[in-house]
Design brief:
This protein is mainly alpha-helical. The chain has one domain. Helix content is 94%, strand content 0%.
Length: 81
């Protein structure tokens, strides 16, 4: 008789865990889908601007190099005077 009493409590514990686990898995799946869609949307929005961003980065590097060269030349000219 005690076996029949323990079985429903064990099955109720098991069934209460199972829906929670299932709900957690579904929530995780929904969150993963949302994150993937968000990354995809950001990629689509930024994609057309990548060539512009690349050009700006390249020009910035060239400007920095030119500035450094000008500073070096300025010091060299000051030393000659």
């Amino acid at each position: 008789m005690s076996n029949s009493t323990e079985s429903p409590s064990q099955s109720s514990n098991g069934s209460s865990r199972n829906p929670r686990l299932k709900e957690a898995k579904e929530t995780l799946a929904d969150t993963s889908k949302f994150a993937l869609e968000a990354v995809s949307n950001v990629g689509e929005a930024v994609g057309p601007y990548l060539p512009l961003i690349t050009a700006v980065a390249s020009l910035t590097q060239q400007i920095v190099k030119a500035y450094e060269s000008a500073q070096y030349n300025k010091k060299s000219c000051a030393a000659l005077i």
